[in-house]
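Tokens for Phosphatase PAP2 family protein. Go.
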Amino acid sequence: MKNKQNHFLIASFALLIFVMIGYTVKFFPESLTSLDSSIQTAIRGTLPQSVTRFFRIITVFGNVTTQLLVVTVSVIAFLFIKWKMEALLVLSNGFVAALLISSFKLLYQRPRPSIEHLVYAGGFSFPSGHAMGSMLIFGSLLIVCHQRIKSRLLQVAVDALFVTLILLIGLSRVYLGVHYPSDVLAGFILGFGILHFLYPCYDQKRFEWRFLLKQD
């Protein structure tokens, strides 16, 4: 019970931070623009131009088509090996990502940065759909792999792989000029909070499912 409360507390704190950033974006955007632009300029100015192609590849992993493909393949694979709760976790987070990203973009309607975009990006800027979707979908896969992999060394390697991928996707959006840093930060925070909110429910149902299978 205490562990469940801890997850809900983290989720609530993350949601509070997201609301604070969102409130600032909606009503006092100028207070963030200067800081955002400075960070964005520093990131693009610090990294050599040779990494542009690398980030163009990385950002594809956060595209809607890629995320839909990852969710579909993962759900089918998990159902095939009878990991029903794992499949439900990935599917639920994919659905939540799609629903909330569209809703919040329409709510805040923040224009994208005015600097040169190195990839095409339509629609509004806040929050970053790539950041939030990656946190939810790849974060779900991280949870599943961490629970299912028995080797501690392999656990750490897979965890590091997913965390690095998620962070690089977020960084790519800033570097490519299609999101402000606060867009990416807000997307990460909201996705992180949702993961912590859903995880206790998933873990409990997963335990109950395994117990029922043993009873049979």
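The chain has one domain: 2-215.
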